[in-house]
Amino acid sequence: MTPKRLLEADPELEQQLLTRREAIGRGARTSSSVAAGLAMGSVPVALAAVAKDAFAQGGLPGVIVDVLNFALTLEYLEAEFYNRGLAAPGLIRQEWRAQVDQIRKHEDAHVAFLRRTLGSRAVNKPTFDYTAGDGSGNGPFRDVFTNERTFFAVAQAFEDTGVRAYKGQAAYLMDNRDILVAALQIHSVEARHAAQIRRLRNQKAWIVGDSRGDLPPNTQAIYDGDDNRFHFILAQPASGISMTHSFDEPLTKGQILRIVAPFIVGGAP
Known about the structure:
10 helices, Ferritin
């Protein structure tokens, strides 16, 4: 998907693009594809765009391909989820549809951008079971596309998982400064998707300790470890639950794949 097509898909993007370009910093050398990725406020889009620019001559290194394909699997999961949710008659109340549709546009663009960047090395889209039934269609979220409450509970689970997933991949980008900088510049924007879904559910916009809130027990792995109160900048454990609000903790690729495995027919790749 070209920057022009992205603009057509999202009427707000042109203004976002100009604003985000200014935010990148004066004198920064940014191609139109990178700027479009940053404007979308998306970790996978920016990673794909910067990777394409940085490694155009020699091809993408294997570690970058692995990170981008990991992101693509998660984006497939979310894109189809929001598309199916919006297509389900009467599922999402009218006053929330525009917000969900905006997130859907982002997820569709993420998939298109990642597939184009990876080319023949892109993984294929798995078959998903959004009931978390390992392909049975009869998992704990069996009413996900008929019950609005269940739909948004699953949406929160996916978004909170995604934020911790991308943070967990940052270490693998340390040797690729441009990609790392792009990811860190927009990581907070990606997290706003999660915050907005949480607000729609009348939850705090951030994770409190390792609490899953009102989500069911089978989602606890998404939040495990987020109650960490020790950070190197403080040199000692901090008191007070508010410390856990201030830092999102990363999850490893293995932890993420175990979380999403019940939603993928045949298990996570």
